């Protein structure tokens, strides 16, 4: 069954508004979660690493003031797309290690959130 | 600049065929190579490869890593229509575990 839950599955919002996406680890704690974005016909691109209790680490070219990440508990990370624009329309997906990480633990992904900004 | 390149980008086969998907990588601080299957939403984990030359198998799927050639292959034997999906290859790199760098994927279509 799913080990990472993401909500909502899809969202449509108007340009200029903000949207919050939640990522939860189910029955395990995740001190680190990752947020990816996938445009149509493109690969998953890592946006940021979400760290419980501290600031997120953003990949080069990702605006931290636009994509706010909060990892306030060991099972929840949120991504807020602020002042969304049509070019932010994409598939956003989070991931976490099921175990405590380590060399042989694969990442598990949430089901993703399809964001459409009109 | 880190690179993960998959080939072919697209492949169409008939049920029962065997396919080989390729992945090459050039990343800093390489840790492991992962394969995922993506159907409609979340990628589902297939294999994680850290050692060169050791084949991993799961049913009709198998994969192997060649660290000398900086590449990996994913084999699927006796393909079925349910194997139709995008197969993603990713390199885990850097100082933080889990910072995956993905290739563009191979779109596999299996016809009955």
List the helices and strands and how they pair.
The complex is a heterodimer of chains A (118) and B (112).
Chain A: E1 4-7, E2 10-13, E3 19-25, E4 32-38, E5 44-51, E6 57-58, E7 67-73, E8 76-81, E9 90-97, E10 107-109, E11 113-117
Parallel strand pairs in A: 2-11
Antiparallel strand pairs in A: 1-3, 3-8, 4-5, 4-9, 5-6, 7-8, 9-10, 9-11
Chain B: E1 3-7, E2 10-14, E3 19-26, E4 30-38, E5 44-49, E6 56-58, E7 61-66, E8 71-76, E9 85-93, E10 100-102, E11 106-111
Parallel strand pairs in B: 2-11
Antiparallel strand pairs in B: 1-3, 3-8, 4-5, 4-9, 6-7, 7-8, 9-10, 9-11
Percent helix of chain A, as a range, is under 10%
Radius of gyration of chain A: 14 Å
The fraction of residues in strands of chain A falls at: over 45%
Q: What general outline of chain A do the C-alpha atoms trace? A: globular
Largest sheet geometry of chain A: 7 strands, mixed
The residue ranges of chain A in which pLDDT falls below 50 over 5 or more consecutive positions are none
Average of per-residue pLDDT values of chain B: 93
Oligomer: heterodimer
List the secondary-structure elements of chain B in sequence, H or E. EEEEEEEEEEE
Provide structural commentary:
The complex is a heterodimer of chains A (118) and B (112). Chain A has 118 residues and is mostly beta strands. Chain A is 0% helix and 52% strand. Chain A has no helices and eleven strands. In chain A, a hairpin with a 5-residue loop joins strand 5 (44-51) and strand 6. By secondary structure, chain B is an all-beta fold. The termini of chain B are far apart. In chain B, strands 2, 4, 5, 9, 10 and 11 form a six-stranded mixed sheet that branches. Chain B is 0% helix and 59% strand. In chain B, strand 6 (56-58) and strand 7 (61-66) form a beta hairpin. Chain B is built from no helices and eleven strands. Chains A and B meet through strand 5, strand 9 and strand 10 of A and strand 4, strand 5 and strand 10 of B.
